[in-house]
Task: inverse folding
């Protein structure tokens, strides 16, 4: 009888612990931000023109820049891009060893209005093992330093691995 009672108590505890070992993306995210309805409303009324909306996405040792999407398109349609800087350097083109607010990728998750065009080339980014579209940057304007989540409210940012992808 004691063994049976022990199983009744221990089994639920083990199940509870095992369910907490799931992916980090479950539950609430770590980026904060607006509700889904508020984000959708903002995108539906945003300015249009000859530019893209971009979100800087930094993962250590990678050289992609981040995600770009067209005006009034959801982030789920954004493309991860490599920036070509022949005409204009990205805003974070700084030393990788400087003070935290003055180094490469200081602007992770900042949102920009990006000017330029896709070159039509796909380039290999070896550290993420991906072929990504190349974008020729000609200008940018900072829009928001704390826009919150990118694809979903449960997005979890990890600087050591790619955790945020369109879904």
Result:
């Amino acid at each position: 009888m004691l063994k049976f009672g022990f199983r009744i108590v221990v089994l639920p505890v083990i199940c509870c612990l095992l369910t907490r070992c799931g992916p980090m993306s479950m539950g609430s995210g770590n980026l904060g931000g607006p509700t889904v309805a508020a984000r959708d409303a903002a995108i539906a009324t945003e300015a249009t023109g000859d530019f893209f909306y971009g979100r800087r996405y930094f993962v250590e040792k990678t050289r992609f820049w981040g995600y770009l999407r067209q005006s009034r398109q959801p982030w789920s349609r954004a493309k991860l891009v490599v920036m070509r800087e022949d005409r204009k350097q990205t805003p974070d083109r700084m030393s990788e060893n400087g003070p935290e607010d003055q180094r490469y990728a200081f602007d992770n998750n900042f949102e920009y209005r990006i000017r330029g065009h896709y070159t039509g080339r796909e380039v290999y980014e070896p550290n993420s093992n991906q072929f990504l579209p190349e974008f020729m940057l000609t200008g940018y304007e900072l829009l928001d330093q704390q826009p919150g989540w990118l694809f979903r409210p449960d997005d979890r940012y990890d600087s050591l691995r790619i955790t945020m992808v369109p879904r």
Remarks:
- The chain has one domain: 2-144.
- Residues 8-26 have pLDDT under 50 and may be disordered.
